Amino acid sequence: MDFADFSKKVDRIRQNAATVMVGREKTMELILTALLAGGHVLLEDVPGVGKTMMAKTIAKCLDLKFGRIQFTPDLMPSDVLGVNVYNQKEAEFEFRPGPIMTNILLADEINRATPKTQSSLLEAMEEKQFTVEGVTRVLEMPFMVIATQNPIEMEGTFPLPEAQMDRFLMRIDMGYPSLEEEREIIHRFGEKNPLHEIEPAVGREDILEMQNHINGIYMDRAVEDYLLNIVRETRAHVSMRLGASPRASLYLYRSARALAAVRGRTYVIPDDIKDLTVPVLSHRIVLTSRNLLEDVRPEQVILDILNKVPVPVENLEEWGR
């Protein structure tokens, strides 16, 4: 796939998504970036801001197999992965797959399930496979989990384990729409649901080719150092009890190359990294007890780090060589 073809496909995805979602261009860009980087996304915000609608829109735009799990306190791991059932006619056990056997998996309100059920996704998210009763099954590519989560302060929620949070490439806070965006929402959805009319923009093979295309995006050594210095500063910052891991560096590297391609470039610039630091790093750090008591948010600390780490000053021609 050449660069012009890649850009055309990105534009088609954006245009199709815009027929459903109002004012969510930034969120759409981040989710597409995560998909092309081979990662998963956690959409976090209060109910009713469009988290589930966003996940459904992405799946329909990409013409991929779509599965949905409504997480509840009584959900069991077998409800996610599948179960072996005895077939009396054949006199043997047969595997009945769960909703995880798909391309785009919507884990709706994931933090309403118990930590045991949440953890049933760990192997699939990291290794693109899952194991039931000693038998490992490989998932079809691409595979992406788009999970939605209500704020943990809300009744009936369980915090995601740290290992689960680390499997998400990005955590995205959607936020409320503006006045005019909300006006457009009530007009657009007042009589019909535009999601029912959306047409696929690309198919499975297109996505796989686009993911391979990301490997050719260039990152200059100076920009690479900028990325690594940001991550390393999270480990030295006075507010930190636990900084970002080397896995975070790798995820930020992959995401930056994917975002550069989505934005129409063959090379990464510092602004790509800046725009990704909060969604990629904020859920991977742990603040000190004092900062937690003072209600300091991880996003604030990440922004403080961005202000301290020097930005490389080479020109665009150097970065794009």
TrEMBL record:
InterPro entries from the UniProt entry: AAA+_ATPase (IPR003593), ATPase_AAA-3 (IPR011703), CbbQ/NirQ/NorQ/GpvN (IPR050764), ChlI/MoxR_AAA_lid (IPR041628), P-loop_NTPase (IPR027417)
Family matches, as PANTHER family: METHANOL DEHYDROGENASE REGULATOR, MOXR FAMILY PROTEIN
Superkingdom: Bacteria
Native source species: Biomaibacter acetigenes
Record-linked Gene3D superfamilies: Magnesium chelatase subunit I, C-Terminal domain (1.10.8.80), P-loop containing nucleotide triphosphate hydrolases (3.40.50.300)
Keyword set, alphabetical order: ATP-binding, Nucleotide-binding
One MF term in the entry's GO annotations: ATP hydrolysis activity
Lineage: Bacteria, Bacillati, Bacillota, Clostridia, Thermosediminibacterales
Pfam name, any one: AAA_3
Name by which UniProt lists this protein: AAA family ATPase
Limits of the AAA+ ATPase domain: 37-178
Entry similarity comment: Belongs to the MoxR family.
